[in-house]
Each structure stands twice: as structure tokens, then as C-alpha cells.
Amino acid sequence: MSSNKTFYITTPIYYVNDVPHVGSSSTTIAADVVARFKRLQGRKLLFATGTDENAIKVAEAAQERGQTAQQFVDSIVPTWIETWKRLNITYDDFVRTTESRHRKVTEAVFRKLTEQGDIYKDVYKGWYCVSDETFFRESEVVGGLCPNAECRKPVRWVEEENYFFRLSAYADRLLQHIEEHPDFLGPEFRKNEVVSFIKAGLRDSCITRAAYGWGIPVPDDPEKVIYVWFDALLNYLTVAGYLSDDEKLAEVWPPGVQLMGKDIFVRFHSTLWPAMLMALGLPLPEKLFGHGFWTTEGEKMSKSKGNVFSPVTVAEDLARISGAEFDVAVDAIRYFLMREVTFGLDGDFSMGGLAGRFNADLANDLGNLLNRTLPLLHRYRNGIVPKPDASDPEVKVLESLVTSTADEVADYMDRLQFSEALGAIWTLVGAANRFIEHQAPWKLAKDESCAARLDAVLYAALETVRATAILIQPFMPSVSEIIWGQLGIEEPAAKQTWTDAGTWGKLKPGTQTREPKPIFPRIDMRTITQPPQKEEQVEQISFDEFKKMELRVGTVKSADRVPGADKLLQLTVDLGTEERPVVAGIAQWYSPEDLVGRQIVVVTNLAPATIRGVESRGMLLAADVNGTAVLLQPDKEVPTGSGVR
Ligand code: MSP
Predict the structure, then answer these.
(1) Which residue, by CA, sits nearest to atom 19 of ligand 1?
(2) pLDDT, tens only, 49-73
(3) In the predicted structure, residue 623 carries a pLDDT above the cut 80
(4) What number of other Cβ atoms are within 10 A of residue 52's Cβ?
(5) Residue 346 has what pLDDT?
(6) Residues with CB under 6 A from ligand 1
(7) Which of 259, 418, 463, 639 could disulfide-link to 338, CB 3.0 to 4.6 Å?
(8) Which residues, listed in sequence order, are joined to residue 290 by a DSSP beta bridge?
(9) Span 369-387, mean pLDDT?
């Protein structure tokens, strides 16, 4: 693919009868992160999202409210647009499937495929789930309920004459395409699901329904409407200018990435959609990616449980409890959703988890870096960027880390590994924090003969902040802009490129920085209400039994990932009298760099165990915040090895 081509990225189009929630927002945020990253790399972009409006459930919901379907969709679409605006989503096109540009494409495709024999008429008999807008085979439905584990609503028996798309004819070509294009489907484990699904046998797809007064009528057969999924998938072509703007189509097609949740990955996006494109003689997207699902506080999101969080309400709540600006709170949500789990896997969202990361990663790690650079510059150098001195070996280490981090992050971004990309940026933040700690500018400031060294240290720290501000831009655009503003750099943040992030020395000596203001006020975790815990029978123990347990404060000397185990870290913990290997399942929440030097609480007389081939002699203690581990550590530094009573 030539890099002059426009990079086209899409989200699914959302059912308009639903409200935007944390789950659906995660797809759109991920797409926005990619879009912003590609723009930083200088790519031209077409980023599209929109609403799926021709569904039966829309017509039914409208009826319940005594509205026409059109009135109903028109009243809801602004909520989606407003939500994306407040989450700083930079889409280029918002497509509604009730627009005439989309209807024209859908009708033309239907005609074309009918003329070439890919669409034919037959009788359809089978189950239909209105909630999922999906047909199921007789054998798939048990007890009259939708076989989709996420749905399980009653299905309807449908028996009528309909139009079919010759999906079965494309099975072999689909399998061949998947095999020849290893990057076409991701993540890898979902690719295998698609291959099994196709190999199990593809039936032709019923793509019309008896007209119900809503939807796109079948050309020349107004008794029928086009099945909402067939119409919805074509939105991606509508946006690309298919049949309306050949130049645009040539410029943007095929899409670089199409994102969607796992529920609509296998059957619709990885099977029906590419087969439709093959039938139309169009190239297939370069990548289709099926991400995981978000639960909230450990439970599936559902209106009846009242746990369908609106991202805007969550941001308002977070801003209120932290005192941060609304846009900073939005960025914290964007950060959380991209950081919490490897993109592709399921994750859990909770206010406790969000606040925990806000404190640990933003207020502590990034916040500390900011609080130790600009304020010191103001204190010691009137806020004016001093001269660099690259001869210091520690400065050199930081310099090469900035350059390699930009490359490493770009690599992760190309593979949609957002959590890992943020992990790499946070490694840089951690290294900069340790650099400052070690150089102790507050000590250098006391000694006149160290003036040049103080300049060099302040410059290096600020330069790392500048690079970090660009690296986090795709994820946290508002925070990035605030930092940029504080640095006082003349060139606007919007003009920066990814190359600028990886180039050391772009910060001009003599720049007058602005008065720094903290961006991430710490959250008092006591203000977060934990969801009611499941009642468990807790067995009581006697004091003598408790006394058998030996707890001591240890200091982490080293930390490394356990190869091949995503969740495990192997630590060496100094207990004053000896050093112990301890394996801990905290790699999802703490990077090895976060841990070195920290004091933790260890159960020291637990029988040794070998975990994934690594010896562990002790267990560290952590609070369980909705499944997220938060390490326990003493209120202030204590002698290593102190007992805990
Ligand atoms: N309208 C169809 C898509 C048509 S695309 C041609 C649809 N809409 S949806 O509103 O139900 O879902 C839109 C997206 O939100 C999907 O990618 C879906 O996977 C995602 N999510 C909905 N709930 C989710 C979670 N709880 N967690 C993560 N993503 C979730 O399907």
C-alpha cells in the first residue's frame, strides 16, 4: 500500500435505538486513537462512523413511543453525535443509513448482484432474532431462544419468500484470502473462529424481509425490504464514494482497518462482508479486527441491572470526584479503555478501576514527571528552557530511550496493541522520573559549581516531557495540549509529527514556559463506592491461627515479566535479612519499572511454590478492587524487613 493513499478506518455503525455506553465507546475511541496516530505520521485520513437506522427494532421502539420511525431516529442521532464530540472523536464522516446517498448505494448493489446472479429468490424458513437482527438455522436454536450467549432473547419463526445472497459460492475464495493474507483478520485467535465457521459450511444468506413500513425497499419489489445487515455493511462503501465519486473511491479503497466487537466479527464482518465485496469485484479491507467485550463491575451490561454507563456521565463523575477538568477526565477514560486490557480481549470497567488507574498512572507517574519538571524550571531558571548538554551518559540513555520509544510505540500501534503502546510510553515516563530522582536537581541547585549540570538535567527532563506529550496525543489529546501549552512551545501541538516525538533536542533553549498547573488532582479513593460484594461465608480464625502467618515489609530489588505468562511478574524482594524470589499475578496493572524500589507487604512463611517454572517464596498483598490489584504499601518508608502486625 502506498503511503500517499488515504487511510480509511471505520467503526461499526451503531444501532440508533441504543445509547452510547462504555462498550460501544471503546470501539470508537480505538478508531480515533488510530486515526490521530496516522495523522501524526502524516497520513491522509478518512475516519467514518455512523448510525444503523433501518432495523425492525427501531420501527418497534418508535411505535412504542407513538412516533414515526423517522421522528424516532431523528430524535436520537444527536445523542450519538454529541457523545462523540464530547469524547473528542475526530471522525471525518458520520453516515446514517436513512440518508439518500446510502439508499442509492444499497439499491444499486442489490440490482447489480441480482443481475449477475449473486442474488436470487427462494422461500426462507427459519428463526429470526429481532434483537440481534439475525437469522438462525433450526439446529442452532434451543428452547426458542437466540443462540447468541450475549442475547438469549426469544426468536421468531419466519416462513416467507425472500431474496438470497449466494454466500456459499464464496467459501473457498474466502478461506484462500484468509490464508494468503495473514494480517487480514485479527486478533489471531478470532481468525481461527472465522476459519472454523466457514469450514463448517456456509449457507446462502437471506437478505430481505417482508416489508414492515421501515427500511430500504427491494428495488422493483416493494413488498420486501432489504435485510438490515446487508444494508448496514454497505455503509462502508457509501462513505467511500462508491458509485458517486470514483476519484474518492480510488483514493480511499480498500479500508486500512475496520474495527468491530467480537459479536459481529465472525458471521457478518469476516464472512458476509468480504463475500459481498468479492461479488462486487472490489478489493477486501486490509484488516478486520474483532475486539473483546467490556463488562461493568464484573457483570454484563444491561439496562435492567442499571450498569450501562454513559461515557459522558462517567467523565462528569470523574471530573467531580477528582477535581480535574472535564476534558482531562475524558482523556482518563480514553486512557483506561486503551490501557486496561490488550486490545482484542474482554475487560471490566468500574469506577474503582478507573479511579485506581487515574491515581497510579496519571496522578502518580505522569503527574509526578510534570510536577518535577516545570515547577523546578520556574524555581531555578525563571521558567526559561536552559541549554542542553548531551555529553552526560545518563542524558544519553534518556535520549536514546525517547527515540526507541517512538519507534516501539509506532510498531505497537500498527498492530493495534494499544495497551502495549501505552506500556512503552509509561516505561519512558518511569525512566524520566528515575532520572530526576537520581540527578536530584534540588541538590544541584544548592551548589553554584553545578549550574551547567542543573541546566543539562532540567533540559533533558523537559525534552522527555515534550516527546511524551506527542506520544500520548492519540490517546489523550486534551492532556497533550495542556502539557504543550505549559511548555510554551511556539509551534502549535497540532503541527507536531511522530518524527518530532522521536527526535531529541527539538525543544529550543530560551523558550519561556508558562506557569505550570497540576493536571491530575489525586482522587480520594474513599469517595468511590464499591459495588455491593457478593455475600460469602467467611470462616473465622483464632488469634493463634493468625499469628502463624508472618507478614513483613520488603523492598522490590528487581522485577521482570515471566516469559509466556501475560499476568505474571517475577520479583526479587529484599526482606532485610535475605532476598527472596516472589512471583505475583499483577502484570496487567503494574509494569516491572513501576515496582523497583517500592516497599510492599509480603507473606513470608507461605510454603514455596513453582509457578510457570519460576520459584516463588512468598506472596505480596494487594487490595482487590473489582478484580484489579492495588498493592499495599506502608504509609511512610520503613526499615526493610519490618514485621507487620
Ligand atoms: N448495527 C450493528 C453494526 C453494523 S456495522 C455494519 C451493531 N450495532 S451495536 O450498536 O449493537 O454495536 C456496535 C458496536 O458496539 C459493536 O462493535 C459491538 O461489538 C460494540 N459493543 C456493544 N456492546 C459492547 C460491550 N459491552 N463491549 C465492547 N463493545 C461492545 O452491532
Answers:
(1) 261
(2) 999 999 988 888 899 999 999 999 9
(3) yes
(4) 25
(5) 94
(6) 12-15, 18, 23-24, 26-27, 52, 232-233, 235, 260-261, 263-264, 293-294, 301
(7) 418
(8) 260
(9) 97
